[in-house]
Every structure is written in C-alpha cells, then in structure tokens.
Amino acid sequence: MKHTVQTVPYGYEPPVQKRKGTLIYYDTFEETDEEGLNEAESLAGVLSFSKLVLYPLHEETVRRMTKEPVSPYYKREKRLEAWRSDGHGKTVIENWEGRRKKYTPVEAALRHLTEKYPAPHFLLLTPDMANRFASYSTFGEWIVKLRLLLTEEPEAVHPKLEQYSHRWDTAQGAVSKQR
User: Residues 18-43: pLDDT tens digits?
Assistant: First the structure.
C-alpha cells in the first residue's frame, strides 16, 4: 500500500462531527401513521443522528413474532416510500427483509443493520416490541451493543428489560436529557 504525504497548516484540528450514529426504527409500520414517522424523524434530528433507518418487518416475521394479522410488506413499504417522498429524503427505508421474502430473526436483522450503518446504534421500538425483544434469548448480548429508545413509557416491563434499565430510555426522556 502506497503512503501519500499530506501537509496541513500548523495548529490544524480536524472539524468535529456534529452528527453521528444511526437511529433504527424496527417495527411492522402497520399502525404507525405519518405523525409517528414525523416524530421519529424529529427525534433523530434533535438527538443528532446522522441517519434514520426505517426497518419494516416482513409478514412472515410478524406472524412468528406476534401471531397478529398484518398487511402485505409491499403495501407498508409503498406507504413509507410515499411519506419519504414528501420531503423526508434523508430517511432510509431498509428493504433487506423484503428482498429475503421470508422470516428473518431479530439477530440476523440487527447484525445486518449494525454492519451496514455507522455506530453508535440506537433501536427505536414500541413498548410492545421492546418487551418482545427482551423475551428472546439473545437479548443480553444485543443490549450491550446497542441502546433502546421506546416510543412511549411501557405499562408493563419485561424482567430482562427492567434488568437492563440503564440501557434504554423513552423518546421524551432522551430529548429532555439532551436539552
């Protein structure tokens, strides 16, 4: 590998990056409306994230996680694309699970997202999805690699989520700490 010589003026300090990290919104997006998406985008701006990644789940993944009916993936993705085209161009819609067209475990999705997008990683979840995520056996190894932001205060907290309460916060709590 060749080395290139670079010169900089005396006393030069590289500019400090103001934005860093990735906020990943992991959800079905079945019940999330435009207001919820706008709140996620403003949260990413207030907390100075370089990227907001929307990760819609495939219907097979939702079926295995919740047993609840959900509209087809392409319809939910089309709705997210329509929202993004209305002036929300900095938001990324990750369609990896849609290309796979099958059940994707949370671990595989998180591994893909953490390899693709810059650290630090924050996972934005609904309280129900956070409790579900905490019930998985791999929760302990993932909670030390990323932090959780919940869209609202949960009514009931999973014991594992309570054990790692220092690794998660609500969106409102994170915004108030930022100020």
Answer: 778 999 999 999 988 999 999 999 99
What are the sequence ranges of the domains in the chain? Answer: 24-178
Closest CA to 38 of 97, 96, 95, 80: 80
Where are the alpha helices (H) located in 4-93, listed in sequence order? 34-46, 59-66, 73-85
pTM: 0.87
How far is Cα 165 from Cα 162, in angstroms, rounded to an integer? 5
* Range 24-178 classified under CATH 3.40.50.620: yes
**pLDDT (tens digit per residue) in 89-104:** 789 999 998 888 888 8
Residue 17 tokens read as: 């990056």
Backbone dihedral angles phi then psi of residue 36, each to the nearest 5 degrees? -65, -40
